[in-house]
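Our working data are protein records whose layout never changes between entries. An example says more than a description, so a record of this kind follows.
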Amino acid sequence: MTLPRQRPQGPATRPAPVREGLPEKAPAPKKSPDKNPEKGPDKAADGRTSGDPWNKVPFRITVDDSDTPYDVVDALLLTPFTTGAQPHARHSRLDALREDATLVPAEGEVLRSVVEDKRESCLTAGPGWTARSVRWSSGGGEVTVVAETAELATKILEQATDGVAAEEEPEEEKVSVGFWYAAPQRGPYRTVRTITAEPWEAVRKNYSASAGAALDKLMAVRRTEAAGRMILLHGAPGTGKTTALRTLAREWREWCQVDYVLDPDALFSSPGYLMEVAMGVEYHGHGDEDENKRRWRLLLLEDCDELIRGEAKATSGQALSRLLNLTDGLLGQGRDVLVAITTNENLASLHPAVIRPGRCLAQIEVGPLPRAEALAWMAHEGADAAKLSAGPATLAELIAARDGNEPVAAGGEETGTGLYL
């Protein structure tokens, strides 16, 4: 049996042969001579029943020059589980570990260890169990335990993961954000990271008077005021749409969990991925009140121009329909889910179903600052207004002028344009 190839920051699953220190392939179970049906299924000497699938499906593993030591560790863990010698598995993944955390159980013997550029892997075994511990250079890790009993697997997993999570100091400018993506081998996956987000009062000056007034109202929304399930921020690139959403995550963090979807095209093209994101995770809030027991979720989708523009129905097939179903259809019923979309398109060019009344909680144009407001921004920052070009300025242009970050460009002689026949 050939298992899938390895994947980044996760368990590679190409198998490898069993070596010393692990259970070898168990012989086929022998039936008990006792034919009394009340005694239950016949059992082999190793305790497995004669109905174990291992007795019917052959198991074969190979190693070639495309495999790595990391693959071998994976295979050695899978072998006792596949054969049924250790049929109970438990797994835990942690996004942030203490620097001194090894994830290796205190009991048992280290059979294999692998150190690579981006990860470290260790295979440990003890009486009746086998464990694989992985630490990634990104600061997270995972542990998988297989054992003869469920209780033993749970015990060893708890032993390996007890007290290893990093304790972050609470900071006012920090907020936890989930990141969804579809991994090639694993499917839909969510990981949590902490990002920095300034309060709205600190960033409001970065927006024009009209956009700032609209964002004032959005930042002040609370769970009972969420009328409409879509937030639409549209405007030219560099105007601060992403910054506004990061600040929104901070302002809403008491009642709303923010998740960023890295691959929105894949999300709405795959029903399974969409169902996992919409239905698969419950987030709990703070306090004892009923309204705080389940938090809302805000899905962030950036630069989804193709998904919501006027011709989207013809070009993206069912993707637009699934988006609308999530925000205002059967899929969204009973789910406290909001969807925030950023686009560079003009509002008039978007599909009418996206901007119809009642669907959007907010439709905000985040445009450049008019000339007078841009000059006031530069004065507030103590920067030389002479560095600004004439006319309105985007937030990106203002920051570049303030910091003196001119783009690297190559000059050249002007040449005439030829005529092609």
